Fold:
Amino acid sequence: MSLSSIDATLLLASLIVAATPILLAALGELVVERAGVLNLGVEGMMITGAICGFAIAVQTGSPLVGFVAAAAGGAALALLFALLTQVALANQVASGLALTLFGLGLSALLGQGYVGIKPPPTARLDLGPLSDLPFVGRVLFSHDPVVYVALALVGAVWAFLKYSRAGLILRAVGENHDAAHALGYKVVRVRILAILFGGACAGLGGAYISLVRVPQWTEGMTSGAGWIALALVVFASWKAGRVLLGAWLFGGVTVLQLNLQAAGAAIPVEYLSMSPYLITIVVLVIMSFDKSRAPGSLGRIFHASQ
Amino acid sequence: MPRLERRPQPSARWTWLAPPLAVLVTMVAGGALFAALGENPFEAIRTIFWDPLFGEFAFYYRPQLLVKAAPLILIAIGLSLGFRAGIWNIGAEGQYIIGAITGAGAGLAFYPMEGWFIFPIMIVAGALGGFVWGMIPAILRARFGTNEILVSLMLVYVAEQLLAKMALGLLRNPEGRGFPGSRNLQHYPSAHNAELVANTGIHWGVVAALIAVIFAYVLLTRHLLGYQIKLAGQAPRAARFAGVNPARLVLICLGLSGALAGLAGMFEVAGPAGQITIDFNVGYGFTAIIVAFLGRLHPVGILLAGLLMALTYIGGEAASSTMQLPMAAIQIFQGMLLFFLLAVDVLTNYRVRARKTEVAP
Structure:
């Protein structure tokens, strides 16, 4: 094998592409968890978004409409979760698992007619002279619009949680829902909105995989990206900026192992394919030393009469 | 909008009524789904739930029922212990795969020797493999407080890659002309998990599943450990005061469920599946989560839920061959069942009251 066959510019550029789906999904989940809800259905919402986006993009010929449909699809599935956990007061862990199992089945059914089709290409954003810069232009300034949407979303979520009144209310609901309720905030309403946002983000992330990253439809194609996004939120200690860092780290690992596979490294392909998951575990272990805490009401059921 | 009033205790009546009601609602919703797919809903429901048991080809399907139910019950029993204690092992699929690999590996190591001791060694190896795989998230959780949900799930993907590596490498059949996959254990009498009674589908895995049900029942109703598991789940603080060691409970629950999932994998690979292949696993580890909840985390409930879920698998296969219904529709069906169960469960824990007008005192 020759390491020289790996091009650093291409590697970094594809790192950003590989990081985008988990970045989007993890940002959504971050907001959900800051509102005190643990939605383990990210994988199900991502794969549903992946097929909704793919199908609609193929039907309409427009990737943009596809991405909108993906967000809607993810949010629709999230609405089911919201109804279960916020209205029927069901266990969040079980409901999240149900969402993932249901989403995997639903996507397989919806995607039957779409195997082997190529989606309409998502155009790169031309940033004029910026894109022509050597190295930096190739790495940072010649991606599709969704990459920049995801990056902007990192800033938006950070600012929303830190500086806006609504963000403060959302955090209050997540830290102590009884106190927030006593202050007159609508706990259930805030949480449902957060869950819908999380679903829309996961849907976008899924569609990014099926429309840009791969780009085609295969059953179960998210292959654990949703779970990695969940791990990313823990890794980030529920902070938006660190989600970006984590997403690039995982994107880097994914891209590097793919490049090593292509370069014919001495390590068997299967062991390389394991590496993102193993590194997730290692990172989770390291992060469990960091006792900066999860939101206080995370995963607890809120019932107003108490 | 009606108001929910928390019951002082979960309703005993609804605890038992909720699963059948959820099944009924799922059938209605599933019928609507099949109608949307352009099939006759009544025919689809009959093909899935009635024909495999009482139809023309029931003699073929009935044995399959036990073959499919055994791994589901075996895995779900293990999961239910952890779920009761608030320990979420959702990586049973991985433990199932590893159990199959170690079980088959132990058997193939003796090939072509024959002997009565080979099959017991395989059973131990399978249980041990699943146990070790389950202990990884257990030790990380007990020692470092790492989230066991995510770790156990990540290990599923690791196990899948390991399975591919084994099917292509170490365990590949040397006489298989280079095709991936191990030797077929069905053609190796000492390692074959054969049918014990002809045409019933009963193999050693079914026996093990029944033993597990009885064992779990005794554990939960008669043994101190079972009491501690229930206590830790319902009142973690009280459990701490009562001297329950949470780390020990994590190790026991994840270890046990891992070992049972590993056993299920081993019985499957030595019997119905026959060989280690790249796509050996079919999601029993995930479906078992639904089985555990549908069975109310109760051993007898799980036994019934496992049989029902096995029926949806078999009925699904029948429906896909006779009605060209996609297998994915069955997956949705199973997911919906868990959804509706969780939704109906609100009636177990809460009373629904019409909203009264509030009067100032």
